[in-house]
Write a structure and sequence with these properties.
Rossmann fold; single chain; binds 6-O-phosphono-beta-D-fructofuranose; alpha/beta; 2 domains
Length: about 375
């Protein structure tokens, strides 16, 4: 495909919001407008905008002054897979799903979208891959604070979330040491422990519990007691929302029935706090950081990465290389086909150098 055959592109953001989304939108839209004289259309609320025909032209003004802004000016949704879209509820309150792909194709045609840059996580890329099979042309940009997308060494938003979680852990120290308590801080990340590992290491957490290394309560308690014996009358535990005991299950906060990924984790820190108090007689408090980890302005690293990703996405679209996901591999911005990453999670290898380094400074993972 030659560069001139693209006239109009769409942009959408899908899945959970993440610091840096607006930086990608800005990079794609401004480069498309300034350098290639393309028309750019914003699709509201991810695939929902394609399903409901909420698609509008973007001007330079629309994408100015958004580099430092968190969230997404386009809005997002993590409940809108066109191939399995909840159109109502049955008598038991369960969602009724329908394939609304024809609606999406019609709306994309109506607006003359030659290609769509979709910024999202695994769910968004799976949705895009499904629509691509019907002829729509996508380029994907990976986002998630969880940093768990296969094929890329890092996603934008992750470093911002690490900074927020690290600052929270640092601040928890004050109360932990003043009150001689065990303080548990629960960190997002779904089934991947990257966020907890990085922020736990950065803040010098005494215990780090991640989904990839199931913990033994007795070992976690022993680590807290051992600290008391060494004269450290407090312990900081950084715990992933997806952490679980050996042979046990993750703590589920809620099931979002009409979401492509319905499980929402949360609450493990409170469960552990109770158990440590009861079993070891140590006073505990739990703090769940929650969505504060996704909020606010992106750190400089994420703004830079998001800009590079957005630029590359447009280059790929202009080169006719569709159904590719922009990635960073060994410091290089490149791309991989959707199908090589769809449905896969990049988890922390248990022999990762960060784990070895943490163990080296005496951090317990609750397993030995
Ligand atoms: O994937 C990003 C993430 O923030 C996870 O870390 C967390 O488990 C989940 O999204 C929360 O989802 P929601 O915003 O739907 O509650």
């Amino acid at each position: 495909m030659s560069r001139t055959s693209l006239r109009r592109i769409g942009i959408l953001t899908g899945g959970g919001d993440c610091p840096g989304l607006n930086a990608v939108i800005r990079a794609v839209a401004k480069t498309a407008m300034f350098q290639y004289k393309l028309e750019v259309f914003g699709i509201e609320d991810g695939f929902l905008g394609l399903i409901e025909n909420r698609i509008h032209p973007l001007s330079v003004d629309d994408v100015s002054n958004i580099l430092t802004r968190g969230g997404t000016i386009l809005g997002t949704s993590n409940r809108a897979n066109p191939a399995r879209f909840a159109v109502g509820k049955d008598a038991d309150g369960n969602p009724i799903f329908e394939d609304v792909t024809p609606r999406v194709l019609q709306h994309a045609r109506e607006h003359g979208l030659d290609a769509i840059i979709c910024i999202g996580g695994d769910g968004t890329m799976t949705g895009a891959a499904g629509l691509a099979a019907h002829g729509l042309r996508f380029v994907g940009v990976p986002k998630t604070i969880d940093n768990d997308l296969m094929g890329t060494d890092i996603t934008f938003g992750f470093q911002t979330a690490v900074s927020i979680a690290t600052e929270a852990l640092d601040r928890i120290h004050t109360t932990a040491s003043s009150h001689h308590r065990v303080m548990l801080v629960e960190i997002m990340g779904r089934n991947a422990g990257w966020l907890t590992l990085h922020s736990g290491l950065a803040s010098g957490a005494d215990v780090i519990l991640i989904p990839e290394i199931p913990y033994d309560l007795a070992k976690v308690g022993a680590a807290c007691v051992a600290r008391s014996k060494r004269g450290k009358a407090f312990t900081i535990i950084a715990v992933s929302e997806g952490a679980r005991p050996v042979g046990g299950k993750q703590v589920i906060q809620k099931i979002v029935k009409d979401s492509p990924d319905p499980v929402r984790l949360g609450g493990i820190s409170q469960v552990l706090a109770e158990q440590i108090e009861q079993e070891f007689g140590l006073e505990c408090r739990a703090t769940i950081l929650g969505h504060v980890q996704r909020g606010g302005t992106p750190v400089a690293f994420d703004r830079v990465l998001a800009t590079l990703f957005g630029h590359k996405a447009l280059e790929l679209a202009l080169a006719g290389e569709f159904n590719q996901l922009v990635v960073m591999q060994s410091g290089r911005i490149t791309s991989v086909p959707f199908e090589t990453v769809a449905g896969k999670q990049r988890l922390v290898p248990v022999d990762h150098p960060l784990i070895e380094a943490a163990r080296g400074v005496g951090t317990s993972f609750g397993d030995e």
